[in-house]
Amino acid sequence: MENKQFNLSINSDFKISELKTYEAICITGTDTGIGKTVVTGLLAKELSKVANVTTQKWIQSGDLDHSDIQTHDNLSGINHVSNMSNDRQVYSFKTPASPHLAAKIENESIQSQALMNATNRLKATHDMVLVETSGGILVPLNETETTADVISDMQLPTIIVIPNKLGTINHSLLTIHCLKQRNVNILGFILNQMESGESIIHEDNPKTIQQFSQLKQIGVCQYI
Question: Which residues contact 109 (CB under 8 A, 6 or more apart)?
Fold first, then answer.
């Protein structure tokens, strides 16, 4: 993926400027490794045309030399002052594992209030903050809280990144169901065209997800 170029196409029936009304938006997905980081960077690039935007990754587990916020910045082209780095990446762990386990290995504990405080500080100096989650929404942060708990507590409007592949309908609808149960405002989903070629499965996935969820498809991310 490092040698590929990426493109985010916003659907013609969706106005990107609509997102400008939100101070912070959560970018989550159905799983890990399904393109949240790329989508967050590209969405920040689009939104930077109409607002002062920054991105945030609450917890970076592994790959500390090539962090997700660095990828955000490379894709968005946004320059950030260095003194914001601790708020943009609140926790950093060496082990590429679920946040609760990565923290435990390093004898640390993730405090949800620290995550919320960092987001609020970024909101105070920017028009918008895009918050990328680690993995899916039910990833544990500590022994008692999941990512979904913090999203719900903060009432963060959310965009779901959905990989267009076999099996994504179930994963997507489960994610949507979980967020709706917590009364989270789901703004829509972005389809990540991870696989080359177009099959009847690729064509059907977004249609079926829309049919059962009644959510908007915001756009499509493609590797070119």
Answer: 103, 142
